[in-house]
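In this supplementary section we document a worked example of the pipeline. Step one takes a protein sequence of length 85 as its only input; no multiple sequence alignment statistics are reported here. Step two produces a three-dimensional model, which step three serialises into structure tokens for compact storage. The input and output of this example are shown verbatim.
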Amino acid sequence: MPDLSDEERLRRQRAVSSARANVELSGGSLSPEIDALNARYVAGDLSDREHIEALLDHARALPPGKPVQEYFTSFDDAVNAAPIR
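The serialised model returned by step three reads:
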């Protein structure tokens, strides 16, 4: 990946921080594996698409459990559900 601008790195950090806050406000926590993927994303080692796909791959590898909410199954689903900026 190309070097990230300070603005892009800040955008990514804010997105990760917002997601973390959302999870924590819901009573959850992020695993060390998710923290590592998020750090790679903020550092620029993963693109938006690669980050989402890596998170989904991690989630798919977890043992089945009771869903706590509906999740997106692809990057495109997540993008299409996002409000237009």
